[in-house]
Amino acid sequence: MKNLLKYIFLLNLLAGGAVWIGYRFYALPFEVNQDVLFSMFALQWGLAALVWQGGSESSKYDDAAGMKTSSMLSSEQPEQSVSDKNEEFAANYGFGFMLFLSGLFPLSACILLSPH
Question: In which band, very low, low, confident or very high, does the pLDDT at 87 lie, cut at 50, 70 and 90?
Answer without folding.
Answer: confident
